[in-house]
Amino acid sequence: MLRRTVLGVLALAACDTSVHTVELPDAPLISPSCVEATQHSDLEWIEANVFKKSCVFSACHKGRALDAGRLTLEAGKSHAALVDVTSDRYDTWKLVVPGDPVKSYLMVVIDPKVDDKGNPVDPDGFDGPITADVGPMPQNSTLLCKEKRDAIQRWIEAGAPAVGGADAGIDAAPAPDAGVDAALPPDALPDAL
Question: What's this model's pTM, rounded to 2 decimal places?
Answer without folding.
Answer: 0.69
